[in-house]
Amino acid sequence: xxxxxxxxxxxxxxxxxxxxxxxxxxxxxxxxxxxxxxxxxxxxxxxxxxxxxxxxxxxxxxxxxxxxxxxxxxxxxxxxxxxxx
Length: 85
Prior knowledge:
Elements: H1 4-9, H2 12-26, H3 32-53, H4 56-73
Helix pairs in contact: 2-3, 3-4
């Protein structure tokens, strides 16, 4: 069960990690937490670099790379994303 008090007290990125972890878990990945951390860390890092270098193409390229990475985890089939959790 979702704890709203906990969600309010935690930084937004923790909510994002939890969401990503649930997505990987729905793909039956035993390493869902590690994959979620890797995904969020990569996206946060490229966001910082995109802003620093003022180059939106960096975000586009990293987004495509992450899509390929996720596809590779599913054997090429695009996973279903659950928006609500």
